[in-house]
Write a structure and sequence with these properties.
elongated; mainly beta
Length: 111
């Protein structure tokens, strides 16, 4: 279950937040718990076809023996036409349970 909120403030600035709750069930041979996650950040229009985003994320570990994850992300998206967008994202871990760094490339297409 996930809920998201975003509200444009003007000037191309849109703060956003999301909260999620994952129900993992009871897999045989594993002790897991349901998890809570949350993200908060801001997206900023940099030009007509480009935007940037900065966010903080928290994800509770499904196992009590592993640390929760906390990270910050920075992303940039550029329109490559009316229906195609290219994005790059970097993430830095802030907690012991998070990866030190993640990089990603996204290609989006509209229909």
């Amino acid at each position: 279950v996930n809920a998201q909120l975003a509200r444009p403030l003007g000037g191309g600035v849109t703060p956003f937040a999301s909260v999620g709750y994952s129900i993992l069930g009871k897999p045989e041979g594993f002790t897991v718990r349901n998890t809570l996650s949350a993200t908060a950040g801001t997206r900023v229009a940099l030009s007509e076809g480009a935007s940037g985003a900065l966010s903080y994320s928290y994800e509770q570990s499904a196992s009590q023996t592993l640390a929760d994850r906390q990270s910050i992300s920075l992303g940039l998206g550029v329109a490559l036409g009316r229906k195609v967008q290219l994005g790059i994202q970097g993430e830095a871990g802030l907690s012991r349970g998070a990866p030190d760094m993640k990089l990603g490339l996204q290609i989006g297409a509209g229909f």
